[in-house]
Amino acid sequence: MRRETERQRERLETCVLVCTNDRDSEYACCADVGAEETVEAVKSWLRERGAFWSPIGVTTTGCLGLCSEDGAAIAIQPRDEWYADVTPEDVPELLEQEFGPDAESIDRRAVDASEHSSH
Q1: Element (H, E) at 57
Q2: pTM for the full predicted model
């Protein structure tokens, strides 16, 4: 076992976790509502801005506990931001809100930064 905390902290500032949980059940799951397409939309948005994997990582996960028939669940860590009902079409607005239009706001939410600058 190797501890890689320091190396990852230097490389990644934040990680977008996208639920792709698939279950055979009467209940909704992210896999059935376009989770894979949502993951690809997140990756594409970040790649277009040169921010994919460094400084922003993308990871698929099991259930995040925000199951819905309306879209996938996303968590952004270590910001502790959680989103439900995310569709591929929602991704540009969500990521711009979190990271700014060019993915330049990594250590603080872009929304927070713009709210502080307008006062």
Answers
A1: strand 56-61
A2: 0.85
